[in-house]
Specification:
Length: 320
């Protein structure tokens, strides 16, 4: 069973106990629908992982002492990874399988579960997947997906901004309005728009505006840098091969790894003016030590990176 200690749980909006209780409730609601659909209630017992001759699934509750083996279910395993990604707890190694894009595969599974998991049991009682239930499980999964959308440069809804910033919807609307951030209207018919939740009808915020706004929110948890590091380790060789544009690689690395030019200058211990000149396609002093520190900050192979930039700077000096 997955456990998170207090230190790792400090960033999470919900405790793992809350999430796990919701998982049990959601799986029981699913089992209820399976039992209703048939062919008999034994199928529901098989789904739950219990012996129908020894346990009456109707008597099961979300209490851990009176429950079924919830860890065997796909929802539980996905929730463990989504919880870690949503709140950046750092317990899950998303690169263990060699994945370049962390949480990419899980993001599609989260979306499928959010859209397809039963929203009630056979009696019509809400499951944690009913949006009106405002459950910790659904909110956590939506937060994980919103983070994935943010990382991939997609526009975000007002609700997604609220989840990532740990703010209420009215507070988010007020804040973006005060900051003059415009929303992009969704291109749907009036009838189709009526079927959407209110926060979706308000439109979406452009990704660059969403990220800038989130960075100014106290409740926003930035994505840990390991994902960007692994991504650049794969991308750098393409930018360092003969004939490639190394400056394009530098700009890409900054976008993936660093929140700002100032942050990069600080980590690499270089003058901001020198760095801006380097990025601005103007001649700057050829400082090998600075280039080596820059390579480290941008997670680039030092010899190839420094060699490429030396050549770039010599060309600029000759053309000046």
């Amino acid at each position: 069973m997955k456990e998170y200690n207090v230190s790792k749980d400090r960033n999470a909006t919900y405790s793992w106990e809350e999430i796990e209780n919701d998982i049990r409730e959601a799986v029981l609601a699913f089992a209820s629908m399976i039992a209703f659909a048939g062919p008999d209630e034994g199928v529901a017992c098989t789904f739950l992982g219990i012996d129908k001759d020894q346990t009456d699934w109707h008597t099961l509750s979300t209490n851990a002492d009176q429950a079924f083996p919830v860890e065997r279910h796909k929802l539980y395993k996905l929730a463990v990874r989504a919880y870690d990604h949503a709140y950046q707890l750092g317990d899950v190694d998303f690169h263990a399988s060699g994945a370049v894009d962390p949480f990419n595969e899980e993001s599609y599974e989260v979306l499928m579960i959010l859209q397809g998991y039963p929203r009630s049991d056979q009696n019509g009682d809400f499951s944690p997947f009913e949006p009106r239930s405002n459950s910790p499980l659904r909110n956590m999964l939506e937060t994980a997906y919103a983070r994935w959308e943010l990382e991939h440069g997609n526009d975000l809804s007002i609700r997604q901004l609220a989840l990532l910033s740990n703010m209420t919807l009215p507070a988010v609307r007020t804040s973006i309005s005060k900051e003059g951030i415009k929303t992009k209207q969704i291109m749907l018919s009036k009838e189709a728009l009526k079927s959407l939740p209110e926060e979706e009808r308000l439109g979406r915020v452009a990704s660059e505006n969403a990220l800038s706004w989130l960075r100014g929110r106290r409740g926003f948890i930035p994505t840990i840098s390991t994902a960007g590091t692994a991504r650049m380790e794969v991308l750098w060789p393409a930018f360092l091969k003969p004939g490639a544009d190394i400056m394009e690689g530098v700009q890409k690395a900054i976008k993936v790894l660093k929140p700002s030019i100032a942050a990069l200058a600080s980590e690499a211990e270089v003058e901001g003016e020198w760095l801006e000149g380097l990025l601005g396609d103007t001649p700057v002093a050829l400082d090998l030590d600075a280039l080596q520190r820059l390579a480290k900050a941008l997670r680039a192979p030092t010899p190839a990176f420094v060699g490429g930039l030396v050549q770039e700077l010599l060309v600029r000096q000759s053309n000046a």
